[in-house]
Amino acid sequence: MSINIILGTPITGTPKPWEYFDVPAIMVNAYELIKSQKIFKKVKEKGLRKILNFDGEIYVDSGGYQCLRHGIHIDVKSIAKIYKILDADYYVSLDYPLNISNVDSKSENKSMRLMKKVAKRNVRNYKVLYKEYKVKNLIPVLHPPEQLASTEYQLLIEITDSDIFAFGGLVPYFLTTKGVSNGRKVGIKMLYWLRKIYPGKIHVMGLGAPSIIPILSKLNIDSTDSSTWRLKAAYGKIILPGKGERHISSREINFGRKKISSEEIEMVNRILDDLCISITYEDLKCSFKLRALFNAYVVLRYNNYYSDDNAFRALLEYASSKID
Question: Which of 105, 146, 199, 233 could form a disulfide with 291 if both were Cys (CB 3.0 to 4.6 A apart)?
Answer without folding.
Answer: 233
